[in-house]
Design brief:
InterPro entries: cNMP-bd_dom, cNMP-bd_dom_sf, FAD/NAD-bd_sf, FAD/NAD-binding_dom, Ferredoxin-NADP_redctase_2, RmlC-like_jellyroll. By secondary structure, the chain is α/β, with parallel strands linked by helices. The protein contains 15 helices and 27 strands. It is globular and about 80 Å long.
Amino acid sequence: MTIYDTFKNRSAQALPKLAPAEIKRIQRFGALMCFRDGERLFEAGHSSFGMYVVLKGAIRIGRYDGLGNSSVITEHGVGEFAGEISQLAGAPSLVNGHAVGEVEVLALTTEALRSLLIAEAELGERIVRAFILRRVEQLDNKDGGVVLVAPPGHPRMHALQGWLNSNGLPHRVLDPRSDEQARALVERYQPEASDWPLAVCPDGGVRMNPTVVDLGRCLGTLPPLSPDTIWDVIVVGAGPAGLATAVYAASEGLSVLVLETRAYGGQAAASARIENYLGFPTGISGAALAGRAFVQSQKFGVKMAIPAPAGRLLCDTYPLQVEMCGSLTHLQGRAVVLSCGARYRRPSLANLKQFEGKGVYYWASPLEAGLCANDEVILVGGGNSAGQAAVYLASHASRVHMLIRRDSLADTMSSYLIDRIAATPNITLHTESEIVALEGCDEEGLEKVEVRNHRSEEQTVYNIKHVFLFIGAEPNTGWLSDCGVQVDDKGFILTGSDVAAPGSERAALETSVPGVFAIGDVRARSTKRVAAGVGEGAAVVSQIHGFLASRA
């Protein structure tokens, strides 16, 4: 479940009508603009704006998908406003807006919109709720966003769809064998085998065999970043700890840039349900928690870049510099917060990479759950994330075979999850067991899995096409070697008294390099829990203030 699922069935709140008194309160944030009948106010993939409040006439919201399809989504009349989540981020619109009749609007820039949301809290809540609900409708109706064109089962589709879903981005998938317009697109571009899939961006541009970087650029999640800008704080990693830093720092007036490799929420977003996070007695999915934090960060003006992996940290100059992976772009920050988490640990299986995304997965989202509906699956891992995933998958798969190398779950999993797994009839726990071989082919993906029980030495072959690996992670710190950030023998970052020389002072979350801080799972001795990461993300902001004050 994502943040957007929480707001489903509340469509009446997607098109609120502002009272004259409310419009009057908004006037000081905007400027009056007039448009002729049929004139375009904003264009998908190109125009960035904050919000338009209609004073006269109407704004027709439409979709153009680059395949020649144009359709009307809705119209905003007098007292209503145009905008959705993209506008909070300052990203290009995913839809088009045209004037119906002679139109007068109160136009707010992105910066003015953020000021309004903070200054007028109650009114801001209604606006943000409407923005979220409109994104929900886009996701449900597949309006706006990217159109992916490929034959069913293409191996790259899972990765692209997974990235889009993880970042809450609407998209459609068309099969050129059955869809006439997709077939016409293929006939026009004549893609070679290496060109699949095709991606049609909101502005109508077509990308051949796109990467997630290509999708990020055409959807605005990867904005241009100037090397001349000096940020107060650069946060590397948008997991719970990094998002907490971003929200607290930006809310206190610091300029914040967040660099994230894949999707906001990090590994926590893969948790189907977190039941011990304070304030959510019925539990909340990791994706929903991360989605709320992401929207909150946009409200306070955080600049988020996804996908934007950091390649090197350079500490021999000040401001500090982060070099982007695969480019020579150096981004400057007065302080850098390392919340880069960890990389998924992979078992030593010879052909593992062959089946990643084609039967082997490192998270369990609705996309993966849909792929294994009514099938048997294998899940490897004995931690809380593995337990949550097993319970979630059990509601979709016919059976979940859970493999652990220990003789029980007691030492690695919370008791409430152990009880739940025991009470779920279609979860079978295999102790002291591990996968020793994967079989399949490039065309069909994974087909068979061989499992060995270490106690009995018995080996069993399962006709299973879906394997989920939740076997932990390794600290993502290899890219820090040029900076000299000290790490422990396992690669986790040392902070505070662990690196401070006798008689010297160092903030609790500061690394061996002044101005560089570490929080969350990547930090040595950290508690590997979402709540702990959020707490460190909040705590580090006061330490950043102290450092910046010392440099003034």
